[in-house]
Amino acid sequence: MPTSDYRSNSPAWDDGQWPGLPALDCDQAADACVIGLGGSGLTAIEELLAMGRSVIGIDAHDVGAGAAGRNGGLLVSGTSDFHHDAVARLGRERAVRITQLTIEELHRIATHTPGVVRMTGSLRIAESDEELTDCVRQRDAMRADGFTADDYDGPLGRGISIAADAAFNPLMRCRKLSATLRAHHARLCSHTTAIEFGQGFVRTDRARISCEQVIVAVDGTLERLFPELNTTVRTARLQMLGTAPAHEVTIPCPVSTRYGYDYFQQLPDGSVVLGGGRDKALETEWTHDGAPTAMIQDYLTSVLRDRLKVQAPILHRWAALVSYNSTGLPVLGEVRPGVWAAGGYSGTGNLMGALAGRAVARRAFGEETEFFSLLHTPARRN
Q1: Measured between alpha carbons, how far is 303 from 300 in angstroms, rounded to an integer?
Q2: Can you say whether the dihedral through the CA atoms of 304, 310, 311, 317 is positive or negative?
Q3: What is the mean pLDDT of residues 121-140?
Q4: Under 8 Å between Cβ of 305 and 298
Q5: Is 36 within 8 Å of 61 (Cβ atoms)?
Q6: Tens digits of per-residue pLDDT, 5-31?
Q7: Residue 22: which of 147, 181, 192 has the closest Cα?
Q8: pTM
Q9: How many other C-beta atoms can be found within 10 angstroms of the C-beta atom of residue 336?
Q10: What is the pLDDT of residue 7?
Q11: Residue 20 domain-assigned (yes or no)
Q12: Is residue 169 part of a domain?
């Protein structure tokens, strides 16, 4: 099979079997309307149903069409900071509890979508002596707070292993969860663009939804939907590639390296998915353009061939948009009266997004949650 053209933008996770969802074509009413059918939006819908609320979920494209179904498939515990950095930024008690909640969320995802998660652990591999020193700081901080982190010195290099982490198929998770939600009478519609939304309503390109609360569960381009968040979040493009089965290598678990800028894993069929390189063109990767570029794809190819020694053909090249928050924690709250936002996951949306989705669903209807409180607790420096 020929090497994939970098413009194809086809994720390795898509098996081509998804039948799609209908578009919304008539006016509707529900207790809540959720905009965005990625991991956080679907989890919000799941929580709303558990609360006995009626809900309509819409997406301008499709289930998992954004970063939720186009990421690297890593389930990494904690915040976007390494643990020692999170402790310094947030305070020990707060950082520890957020990490514990992400680990609980990982196991919840594994239970609620069987066959999607592989409990593999993860590796952080150092590319320099300086990074190795930082790995040791992370290891020591994690151990001091009761998390398992061990030294690693093996075929992939030197660094640390983190037992709590896992791998999964992100698009399969979104599709399985959406099927479950529809079976429980959630109304989910794809190819339905929210043109305007405010207290009590969402106007789409074909219909109007009347609702008590609006939840916007969107990560990349969040600041386009909420211009008032322009100074809080900024959208970036993350790029990846995927190969045919690569039997010449063995990568036992997800790996991150170069301070998390590069990441890769090997799937059960032997294929390798690899992402990163954003720092190689940092300014141009702050963008709302979701198409992969030759420059970053060439860099990823060089990592694949020269660093990992993978010779299997490249079948997929793709990109996704995510938003980064200057605080390192998600945006979670009521941005306008009756309109709530969940996003700005800074590259950690797989677990943070699910936690945020459930928390915003509860908060929108007056219920406090621990995760919501932790995100709005002032930091206590240690």
Answers
A1: 5
A2: negative
A3: 98
A4: no
A5: no
A6: 655 788 999 999 999 999 999 999 999
A7: 192
A8: 0.95
A9: 14
A10: 54
A11: no
A12: yes
DSSP string, 291-356: S--HHHHHHHHHIIIIIS---SPEEEEEEEEEEEETTSS-EEEEEETTEEEEE--TT-HHHHHHHH
φ/ψ of 130, rounded to 5, equals: -60, -45
Residue 236 dihedral angles phi and psi, to the nearest 5°: -130, 155
| Best CA proximity match to 310, nearest among 264, 250, 362, 249 | 249
Distance between CA atoms of 156 and 135, rounded to whole angstroms?
15
Whether the pLDDT of residue 1 is over 70: the answer is: no
Residue 21 belongs to a domain: no
Query: Residue 245 is inside which H or E element, if any?
Result: none
Domain with 330, as residue range(s), is 28-375
User: Total domain count for the chain?
Assistant: 1
The per-residue pLDDT for range 169-209, each reduced to its tens digit, is: 999 999 999 999 999 999 999 999 999 999 999 999 999 99
Cβ atoms of 255 and 265 closer than 8 Å: yes
Check which CATH number belongs to the domain holding 62 and give it.
Answer: 3.50.50.60
Q: pLDDT tens for residues 147-158? A: 999 999 999 999
Minimal CA–CA distance to 30: which of 207, 218, 225? 207
Beta bridge partners of 342: 217, 332
